[in-house]
Design brief:
The complex is a heterodimer of chains A (559) and B (284). Chain A is α/β, with parallel strands linked by helices. Chain A has 18 helices and 21 strands. Chain A folds into 4 domains: 170 residues, 3-Layer(aba) Sandwich (Pyruvate-ferredoxin Oxidoreductase, domain 3); 180 residues, Thiamin diphosphate (ThDP)-binding fold, Pyr/PP domains (Rossmann fold); 51 residues, no CATH class; 106 residues, Rossmann fold. In chain A, helix 10 links the parallel strand 10 and strand 11. The two termini of chain A are 37 Å apart. In chain B, the strands form 3 sheets. A 7-stranded mixed sheet of chain B has the order 2-1-3-4-8-7-11, sandwiched between helices. The chains are: A alpha/beta (559), B alpha/beta (284). The structure holds thiamine diphosphate (TPP), iron/sulfur cluster and magnesium ion. Thiamine diphosphate (TPP) binds next to helix 3 and strand 5 of chain B.
């Protein structure tokens, strides 16, 4: 039996929406459900109107649902703002002793006080109530509350009492949503794209990170800093993004896997450093968590506007990879992949994420750490004398760790095989050729796009990165409505391998992306001879959804 | 006296440039510290000063203009068994890289920063630098520099830098001793080295400096006295003090990471799957 429940929590910044959403997401994940959750936040710390939306389903879901079954109104405004999104028969949980027919009226704050808490504890009352209204087992909820507050026995006691009181009170209303529980046991984590990516960095043996805070990238350094002692990492908040990338390059030179992360504006400051990585042939991984630009743009919202910037960034000519993972599971995998490619080819690797991928929660299958490839490409023993830029296969030279050989010499000036500054034309030509010689091998390494749906369909919906989830669902819905399309999702977006796109020839290709100017469409026409029929673009800062794609696909609108 | 530190015949420096003396002092100092060339990393940015690493047989990270300090900080954090020095110019370190220097004072990595302070941009042919004197005339500043010069020594004392010193390229022996002391010091050392540029600075010449520089007499200055150090740091003009101006032991950047207590970061093995499983378990 298929089931699906869409839940929305609405409230002001500072009212604890995130904590409540996290708790509920974990609850459904523990109950064996698949969950997709995302947030809509204004760029402020207090006030305004924010929401946290959970889609709970019996099969994997990767994009938000279209209508709400249960709305939790924590600010007294949500019922008005989100009323149009409610399904017929949907319910609104309000913090009030009385309410209308579609409302489940529970005096959450009063219940919290009666249970020994204060106003902030009403979130636990709400959690209990939502669990009861959606038919969740108390044996799943109560241990989860206990574990969540395990560090503080007093908080645990209050929150537990509040959750129990909320659960009881909701049952007493006699209202509920028809929502059948899966019988499968729990077994999937509930995490967002950047948490998955950060775990991937740990699995890849990343040991150094420097970054300067910038939404939506900050979670990565915050998480890794929290793991630094357990995993033996050095994590440093740099004074600016210029320092961050130069620190990462220093760390890479000294012999460890190094990471930095930022958003488009911070990456703009890193660009000279990226070029330095190209010249020194140093592995480094740079995460660009995209948000709408130009300049400060919409800091808490999403866009895929930095594709061509990432591919073209840096003065001079040097190779790089650009990866754009589709989901949390792919974000986990992208990190070890990026570190491996960076070290194998001694190039910078950019992982392009965006706010949507970064902050949307999913319940991927548990990661299999034993299958992560961690190959150490650094020299164990070097010949003497060691020359950093001696020619090697595909132009890739032996990479030694300073201290293990006579000298490791790297120079941002043009240099000879020893790494020392030169100016003569012959050496310059040889070095340019050497740096670029790895491109064919790099291209051959790039994974083909993800594909879903009938390969013979005339229509192809093609997207990249975090657009994949919405695209797949749009494809399924269109197929169900008798309009078959094949869906393509690029995850390794640079370099492009034109062979991967041969199956597109003669078909009607619609490129779907979160930007105004169709950057992927331009890239594919220019570099892979793909004939793009049209583009569906979204640039209002909101994530792509199946409904948005279908509306524009069927209506022929090109936004 | 150079103990394995060899200097190249060829350089791109003008005959008579103060950089030669600085290079000799660096080699002498490193030898005196009983270091092997492959245990030393010279980190630099871009400029005439920043070319020094190419003319000596150590490990080299010659990065971007202004960005040597963050790279050096990370190299030291990854392998604290290496001795890390930055050789940089006044433009490189106080201009383009000024923000990094401020924060390096705060971080206090155990590195030595040698600023070849010629009060001019040598490599780009003679524009004013942050330490050029007020009124200093260049092709670009044809009416004279309109900004007051930065006082790097006073800045470093104000920032509570762990070791602050001023050297002079006209005194190789004194400079070598100062650099050796800075290298041995645990924590960040800033040595502002006054370096005549014979091509582009006709004002602050060897003779100009020789008339003014002096080492405070034994026992007359206590570098651990910050107020006295600041007073000395402000002494400029007819008399220019050399030597250690300020010194304070402070916690070193690298020793504050749990990851580095058992050894260097570069020697740490990859984490096992058990640790990763534990991290993942927190998301259930
Ligand atoms: C980002 C960047 N901006 C400008 C330059 C040009 N540039 C190279 S060295 C330099 C100034 C050098 O002055 P200083 O650091 O005092 O070194 P000196 O040559 O005097 O030893 C400048 C402006 C550059 N290489 N990179
Ligand atoms: S320009 Fe000045 S600093 Fe540069 S080498 Fe010549 S004398 Fe030395
Ligand atoms: Mg200079």
């Amino acid at each position: 039996m298929l089931y699906e429940l869409n839940l929305k929590l609405g409230g002001e910044a500072g009212q604890g929406l995130q904590a409540l959403g996290l708790l509920l997401g974990r609850l459904y994940a523990r109950a064996g459900c698949h969950v997709f959750a995302n947030q809509d936040n204004e760029s402020r710390i207090r006030g305004g109107h924010n929401s946290y939306q959970l889609r709970v389903a019996s099969r994997p879901v990767y994009t938000m649902g279209e209508a709400i079954d249960l709305l939790v109104d924590l600010d007294g405004e949500s019922r008005r703002i989100h009323a149009p999104e409610l399904v017929p028969g949907g319910l609104v949980l309000v913090d009030s002793a009385s309410g209308g027919p579609r409302e489940v009226a529970l005096p959450l704050t009063e219940i919290a006080r009666a249970a020994g808490g204060r106003e902030i504890h009403r979130n636990s009352v709400a959690a209990g109530a939502v669990a009861a209204l959606t038919g969740q087992d108390r044996d799943t909820l109560f241990p989860l509350i206990d574990e969540t507050f395990a560090a503080d026995p007093a908080a645990r006691a209050i929150n537990s009492a509040c959750a129990r009181a909320g659960y009881r009170a909701a049952l007493e209303t006699g209202k509920s949503l028809p929502f059948a529980l899966p019988s499968r046991p729990a077994g999937r984590p509930y995490l967002n794209g950047h948490e998955a990516l950060s775990l991937g960095c740990l699995a890849a043996g990343c040991k150094f990170m420097a970054a300067y805070p910038m939404s939506p990238s900050t979670l990565i350094i915050t998480y890794l800093s929290g793991q630094a002692d357990a995993f033996g990492l050095v994590v440093e908040q740099a004074e600016d993004e210029v320092a961050a990338i130069n620190m990462a390059l220093g760390a890479s030179y000294a012999g460890v896997r190094a990471l930095t992360a930022t958003s488009g504006g911070g990456f703009a400051l890193m660009v000279e450093g990226l070029s330095l990585a190209g010249m020194l042939e140093l592995p480094v991984v740079v995460v660009i968590a995209q948000r709408p630009g130009p300049a400060t743009g919409l800091p808490t919202r999403t866009e895929q506007g930095d594709l061509l910037f990432a591919i073209g960034a840096g003065h001079g000519e040097f190779p790089r990879f650009v990866l754009a993972p589709a989901t949390a599971a792919e974000a986990f995998a992208a990190a070890p992949r990026a570190f491996d490619l960076a070290e194998r080819f001694q190039v910078p690797v950019i992982i392009l994420t965006d706010q949507h991928l970064a902050e949307s929660y999913l319940t991927p299958e548990p990661f299999d750490f034993s299958r992560v490839n961690v190959t150490d490409y650094r020299l164990k023993q070097a010949a003497s004398p060691y020359h950093r830029y001696d020619p090697g296969p595909d132009g890739v030279s032996p990479l030694a760790v300073p201290g293990t050989v006579d000298a490791v010499v790297v120079d941002s000036d043009e240099h000879d095989a020893r790494g020392h500054i030169i100016e003569d034309a012959a050496t310059r030509n040889a070095m340019v050729a050497k740096r670029l010689a790895r491109i064919p091998a790099m291209r051959a390494m790039v994974s083909p796009p993800l594909r879903q749906g009938p390969p013979e369909a005339e229509d192809v919906l093609l997207g990249w990165g975090s657009g994949w989830g919405a695209l797949c669902e749009a494809g399924e819905k269109l197929a169900a409505a008798g309009r078959p399309v094949e869906v393509w999702g690029l995850q390794e977006v640079w370099p492009l391998n034109p062979e991967h796109f041969a199956p597109l020839s003669g078909r009607r290709v619609t490129v779907v992306e979160s930007n105004a100017t169709g950057q992927m469409a331009r890239l594919l026409s220019g570099w892979a001879a793909v004939r793009v029929a049209r583009g569906i673009n979204r640039y209002d800062g909101r994530p792509l959804s199946a409904a948005y794609i279908i509306r524009h696909f069927e209506g022929g609108e090109t936004a | 006296m150079t103990k394995g530190f060899q200097l190249t015949e060829e350089t791109a420096w003008c005959p008579g440039c103060g950089n030669f003396a600085i290079r000799q002092a660096v080699a002498q100092a490193l030898g005196r510290c009983e270091l092997e060339p492959n245990r030393v990393v010279l980190v630099s940015g871009i400029g005439q000063a920043a070319k020094l690493p190419h003319y000596i047989n150590t490990n080299i990270f010659n990065g971007l203009h202004g960005r040597a300090v963050p790279a050096a900080t990370a190299i030291k954090a990854v392998n604290h068994d290496l001795t890390v020095l930055v050789t940089t110019g006044d433009g490189d370190c106080y201009g383009e890289g000024g923000n990094h220097l401020l924060h390096a004072f705060r971080r206090n990595p155990d590195i030595t920063i040698l600023v070849h302070d010629n009060q001019v941009y040598g490599l780009t042919k003679g524009q004013a630098s942050p330490t050029s004197e007020y009124g200093f005339v260049t092709k670009l500043q044809s009416h004279g520099v309109k900004n007051e010069p930065l006082n790097p020594v006073a800045l470093a004392v104000a920032m509570d830098a762990s070791l602050v010193a001023r050297g002079f390229a006209g005194d190789i022996q004194g400079l070598a001793a100062l650099i050796a002391l800075a290298v041995k010091h645990r924590g960040l050392s800033l040595v502002d080295i006054r370096q005549p540029c014979v091509s582009f600075n006709k004002l602050n010449t060897y003779a100009w400096y020789r008339e003014r520089v002096y080492y405070p007499e034994e026992g007359t200055h206590d570098p651990s006295d910050r107020v006295a150090a600041f007073r000395l740091a402000l002494t400029w003009g007819d008399r220019i003090p050399l030597g250690v101006i300020y010194r304070r032991e402070r916690p070193v950047f690298e020793e504050q990471f749990a990851a580095l207590t058992e050894g260097t970061l570069v020697s740490r093995p990859y984490p096992g799957t058990a640790l990763l499983e534990k991290a993942l378990a927190a998301f259930y």
